[in-house]
Amino acid sequence: MDVSKEYYDKWVKIWSAQPEETLEITALVRAIECVNGCIQYAFRDNVPQALPLEQTRECMKLSMGVMKNKTLKISNRHTLYIPPNIHPLMDRSRDIYINAFKKGDNEALDEFYGLSKAHFVVIGKERVDRQYDFVRTHFTDLFTEMWINQGQRYIYSVAEFT
Residue 46, SS3? Predict the structure, then answer.
């Protein structure tokens, strides 16, 4: 994926300065977001493999809940609480996404793609794979293996992983 060098370089510096905990958690968040994004686009585009409406809504609810509430319910007994020090970076990324995709801001779109590619490159293939294994373990019933694989392939494509 071609991205703005200016934004890519800016965000490589930001992501590279983050502690391991931030990279692990944001890698998980992005894994969930990318799977959900693939599911939402498939539903909107009437792709034959699209999930049913209610399941598609549940996927959106899970993904949006992570970004809005900074929590991820893993099971009836376990919830991941994203540490408050990570919230500003998540909110900043989300604001860029909203400006790009919800408000049609082309400059924000360029920044979001630079931010995303930089994030994927900095977190690396090994961490992406580890977080997708986590998603498979806990959320395959909701997302399905096919869509989890599609989200992972999306990240591989953007980051140019082989």
Answer: coil
